[in-house]
Every structure is written in C-alpha cells, then in structure tokens.
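In full, the data.
>
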Amino acid sequence: MSAVMITRKVRKWEKLPGKNTFCCDGRVMMARQKGIFYLTLFLIVGTCSLFFAFECPYLAVHLSPAIPVFAVLLFLFVMAMLLRTSFSDPGVLPRALPEEANFIELEIEAANGNVPSGQRPPPRIRNVQINNQIVKLKYCYTCKIFRPPRASHCSICDNCVDRFDHHCPWVGNCVGKRNYRYFYLFTLTLSLLTIYIFAFNIVHVVMRSVDQGFLSTLKETPGTVLEVLVCFFTLWSMVGLTGFHTYLISLNQTTNEDIKGSWSGKNRGQNPYSHKNIIKNCCEVLCGPTYPSVLDRRGLMQEDSPAAANSEGPCSFDNPVAQTTKTTAPLIPNEHTPDDVKPSITAEQSSAPEDDPPPAAKLPPLASPETDAETSIAKNQ
C-alpha cells in the first residue's frame, strides 16, 4: 500500500497550539481543566433552586411577589456573566509562524553580536516608551514572540494572554483583556445574589419561627440550613474578591502586576496606564471598547493529510472511475482481437455501416518432419 497526500480544508481552531478545548465549532473556548467550573455551576444552580423551592413561595405571599422576581433576574444575570467569561477568548495571542520566528532570531543575533562560548547570552528584552516611561517587552520562548505590554504566558493554558490578569479555575478560563469586565460583573452580581439569598433566608426563618417555632420551621424547610451554610462561606470570599478587584480597577492595575509588584516599591516607577483618576480608570476598564479576537478560530486553512492508495496502480484513488479502454488491447484491430476490446479508430469508421470482417486467409497446413522424410524417399526411388 502506498500513500498519497490529499489537501482538505479544516478550521483553524483544530490546529491551534495550547491547552484549550473548543466546542460548537470553535465558538466556545475554555481551558482543559473544567472540574472546578462544573462545581461553580452546581453551587450556584443548586443554592438558587433551593431558594426558589422553599423560601420564595412563602415570601411572595407574606412579604412581596417582587422578591422572587428580582431573585430570578439576578440569577439570570449571574449565569450570563459566568458563561460569557468562561466561553470567550480571554485575549490569546497567536504564536509566531516559522518564518517570523526565524526572522526574530536573526534580529536578536544581529543585536547581541557574537556571544563567546560558555558565556550566558543577554536577556531577550525590548524597551518601549509608554506615557514617558520605559516598559520592557519580554520574549516568550514558547510562542516565539515579544509579548505586548501587560501580556503574560499562562502556564495552565500554555498561551500568551493580552493584559493577563490571572487564571481562574472557578470559571474554567483565563481572565484577560477580552473577558475581564465580564469576570468583574460576575463577581459583583454573585456577591449581591449571595447577600440577597442569605438575608431572605434569615427573614424567612424568623417569620416562620414566630408562628410555628424554630424547630418546626427547620423540619418544614430542610434546605434552609444548607442554603445558609453555603451562603455564609461564599459570602466572605466573594465579597472580598469583589472588593480586591474594585481596588485594582480604580488603579487600572491587574492581579499579575499587583502580585509581582510591577508598579510598587522604591525602585519601581509609576503605573503608566493609570489616568490618576478613579472614574477614568473605571470607565476605561468597564466601559471601554470590546476588542475582537485575533485568533480567527473559525477561519479555514488547508491541511495535507496522507491517504491510503490501492497497490494496483500508482494513480488509484478512492473515487472509482470506469475505464473504457483495456491496456491489453492493440492499437489496430485484427482478427485476433475480441470484439469487446476493439476501440474505435477514427470518426469515419464509427459513422460507416458495420460490415462483417473479411474472412481470414487460409494458410496451408504445416508439414510435419515425418511427412517430409517420406516424400524425399519416394522421389529418390
């Protein structure tokens, strides 16, 4: 069996490097580690379902029907922000093509000159000026590019992400330039939803305890205790996380920059991205333009794939084509050619009426050696 190359068109997301998973023909992009994301969905949906089943019917009758309505709207907004954060491209930067990587290597070698053997080469860094301040662009040895300002390489997703904030396992994705505002709105609304459910759980228990007693209330609404526990432990973490990111947004700073101390300390410069105004910083982060993805995940590209070929001939393909001419047939028909393999010679012959072929000339039979010998003896006598 020999192999031939067949060119076919595939989507670009099928050949993208990195540790991401794609669904819905490349429309959904997530990290491979999604177990904690499913836990997040379970906690949110489960807690809200218990609230709608046990507390909302009683509160809608005895307090106001607006309580479950507002809870539903808040729940839908939380789920929308979670899915928008988890399923979107956080701002992954494409890796350099082989030609681009070779060109960058030549530029680096020309800039550094000949490095003596045994000596460590200088770091691959480029300096750019942003708002009268020098910012260093670091070279990524995995993606073969000089990362833009504020970009960083995520070791979990194995991609360079523009304006990288952090990798959040709770949403199953990186948080970067294209989905940070949705992540912040998710934490903010989830904090409000947690406070809302926790507060009305307490109100529900107190109102029922006045009429029926505390123990009777717990027996009739067994999900209340579970809701209170989940909301109590979730409340502190979500409120603290929301407050921390509110602080970062007011400074126009990322979590990665805050952890590394990029703009803090005695030897550090001031943040060149800050507008020195809280309102302007918040407007830039939360109300700025939505940047398009630079990956072109659903674009088409050509791929050469090997295909098994039939061993009967070098040009045998899967698509069968009927062969009308046999290779064993001679070019000119004669009496020794069967009728089913006689090809048409010219157009004139095909248009002329078909006649019976001329009878074959009869050849004299060949004499055997014994007959020749008897004939020669008779002549001699």
Observations:
- The longest strand covers residues 2-11.
- Residues 311-371, 373-381 have pLDDT under 50 and may be disordered.
- The CA atoms of residues 149 and 287 lie 21 Å apart.
